[in-house]
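FORM 7B: Structural annotation worksheet

SECTION A. Query
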Amino acid sequence: MRAVVQRVAEARALVASEVVGEIGPGLCVLLGVARSDEPADSERLAGRVARLRIFENEEGKFDRSLVDTGGAALVVSQFTLIAETAKGRRPSFTEAAEPELAERLSGVFCAELAALGVPVEKGVFGARMRVELANDGPVTIVLDVEGRS
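SECTION B. Predicted structure
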């Protein structure tokens, strides 16, 4: 499981020009699920995202997390994060989870974020979306489930 986490001033996901999820300050989380992932991976990664200290304190140091700041998360499932690009010029997505598993584990991830006190907005699983965001910093971090690349 992989998450690309972007600190944002605001973000929203649109499907056919209709806003389906929108947040103010917080994190935009692009979430990729691999076929080998399990519910425990979703829970562990959600905890890491919620507690990732990438928000500044009064001295301008990264010392606060999403939980500390009361920010929200916009979570967008993105199987392309699991692409294998070592060979050729066309990415391979064979390690990406089947849609049923990916949707279920994305749901576990969002539920765990919410259980940690993070307001969660979501894109529409499997839909073609436009994601708009104002990256704050910019700050972008890639997180992988521990023990996997």
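SECTION C. Observations
The radius of gyration is 15 Å. The chain is about 25% helix and 40% strand.

SECTION D. Sign-off
Analyst initials: ____
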